[in-house]
Specification:
The protein has 494 residues and is α+β, with helices and mostly antiparallel strands. The protein contains 11 helices and 22 strands. The strands form 4 sheets. The protein has a 7-stranded mixed β-sheet with strand order 13-14-15-16-18-17-19, with helices on one face. Strands 3, 4, 5, 7, 8 and 9 form a 6-stranded antiparallel β-sheet that branches. A 6-stranded mixed β-sheet has the order 12-11-10-20-21-22, with no helix packed on it.
Length: 494
């Protein structure tokens, strides 16, 4: 074995000592050539499983049939799909006893949908742990049973907990070339297992995870930007084959939104001839993420979920309906579009939830860099719509509204002059973090310092937001770094 092989061997053996649950499997996958592991017509599920859009009574389950076992990529740097059949088995018991477990219909992995397997399960109970597993094979005469996964339905009693993350830059993580001012910290082990932040979040055992955009970066590296359908799909395959991601999502429900990098490219709107084209960007996000049923091109990706008696969350869509970024700001310029804006206002007025959280891929409060023009804080962007929305909240006495945003690669807590508080999650990995902008500086969108900012991190770091809601209606929001260290804590009562 050469020195590189010994390095991988040592890394995987050491990791197995502290993470015994699948160390031997990872060791075999890291050392053996791909062709030596895969028999003819063998079918795998190298990207694990996801449970998405979980409600009190339903969930979307997702997997993808693959031709290789992973986590190593093939010679083209991809995880190719494989034809086959699959279904999901689910139960309230982890042993799936005969007579009390359920199965979805059999599904065929179709290359038209990138060999995705997705099914909605219904009839679930609120606040209940559900166990599920993939049953799959080349055909129904040669079936395998995957590991047991789990999630918990929403709608139960408090407490509630969730993690939220954004801006997960694969190229910066793997290449050691930062996309900002953050440290380059990914070790050889990390590059085999994936982002450390997912181990940190898993230790908290959150009820669910929110991915609020820039889950992949089609436009990085610039020399190899993804513009064609196979290139765009490969970005998702390489991201979701990491063992740490598979382990985290094996026990955590998910909700997803897209932003510019996992739509087209940096600051993209619906115009311009540069690829990918807008419709492809919209369709691939629906294809890769469990937010709607396979082939559904009509259901809006903006939606709201009632998590508990005291918490309702809105997910707004920031790319599908926007006006051109270059359009002069004013009452006709919009990110949300009239239909979504009316829906947002109507559902906010109808809600009797104690806490109302708006999850937005881009910031509402900021501040941001004044050179930008694609979000609600930018003076040459969409500020009119953002300020109008804050006035509407005040005029209609919509209380206890919190904005949680992604997109900006730094963590902060800001308060708009009209009272709306915003928590930005920053970037999930160190290599994608930057220092950020403060109120009252000439280069920010708030040179007069009208925004109050109780917190901005002191040094760029990857990390996430951890939110809990207790039985006494106290909501706690914590900024944490990618190793779980608490950087900022805010307790709020209604």
């Amino acid at each position: 074995m050469n020195s590189n092989g010994r390095l991988i061997d040592n890394i995987m053996c050491n990791w197995f000592v502290s993470n015994h649950f699948h160390g031997l499997l990872l060791l075999a996958m890291a050392i053996l050539p791909i062709h030596a592991m895969a028999e003819e017509k063998a079918v795998f599920h190298a990207q694990g499983e996801l449970a998405g859009e979980v409600t009190a009574s339903s969930a979307l389950l997702q997997s993808r049939l693959t031709a290789i076992q992973g986590p190593a990529l093939d010679e083209k740097g991809d995880v190719p799909g494989a034809a086959g059949v699959a279904c999901f088995e689910w139960s309230q018991s982890s042993v799936f006893p005969a007579g009390s477990s359920n199965r979805t219909q059999w599904l065929r992995a179709d290359p038209q949908f990138d060999y995705m397997i997705r099914a909605r399960i219904t009839g679930l109970r609120p606040g209940t742990k559900i166990y599920y597993r993939l049953i799959f094979g080349h055909d129904r005469d040669h079936l395998q049973t995957g590991p047991t996964r789990q999630f918990e339905t929403i709608g139960g009693a408090s407490p509630v907990s969730f993690c939220m993350g954004s801006c997960m830059n694969y190229h910066a993580f793997m290449s050691g070339k930062p996309n900002g001012g953050g440290p380059v910290s990914a070790t050889p082990t990390d590059k085999l297992l994936g982002y450390p932040v997912f181990e940190s979040m898993a230790k908290l055992k959150p009820g669910f995870f929110i991915g609020t955009g820039d889950i992949v970066y089609y436009d990085q590296p610039a020399q190899g930007a993804a513009r064609t359908l196979p290139e765009m799909r490969r970005k998702w395959h390489e991201q979701f084959r990491f063992p740490r991601l598979i382990d985290f999502f094996a026990g955590t429900a998910t909700y997803w939104s897209k932003d510019d990098h996992d739509f087209r490219y940096n600051d993209a709107d619906l115009g311009g001839k540069q690829g990918p084209d807008p419709q492809t960007g919209i369709e691939i996000f629906r294809e890769q993420m469990p937010i709607c049923e396979t082939g559904d091109v009509k259901s809006p990706t903006y939606r709201t979920i009632r998590v508990s008696e005291d918490l309702q969350i809105w997910f707004v869509e920031g790319r599908d309906f926007r006006s051109p970024n270059s359009m002069p700001d004013g009452p006709d310029k919009t990110i949300w579009g009239e239909t979504q804006k009316k829906w947002l206002q109507q559902t906010l007025k109808q809600s009797d939830a104690t806490w109302k959280i708006i999850v937005t891929p881009t910031p509402l409060v900021g501040p941001d860099r004044d050179s930008k023009r694609d979000n609600h804080t930018n003076t040459r962007g969409f500020r009119h719509e953002g300020e109008s929305f804050f006035r509407w909240l005040s005029e209609n006495k919509i209380r206890n509204v919190i904005s949680l945003c992604g997109d900006r690669h730094w963590q902060y807590h800001s308060i708009h002059p009209l009272g709306v508080e915003e928590f930005c999650v920053g970037a999930l990995n160190d290599e994608n973090a930057i220092a950020g902008e403060r109120p009252g500086t000439a280069r920010s969108t708030d040179p007069e310092g009208k925004i109050r900012q109780p917190y901005i991190y002191s040094q760029p770091t990857g990390g996430f937001l951890y939110v809990t809601l207790d039985k006494d209606k106290t909501i706690t929001l914590q900024h944490r770094d990618d190793h779980g260290l608490v950087l900022n804590t805010v307790h709020k009562k209604p």
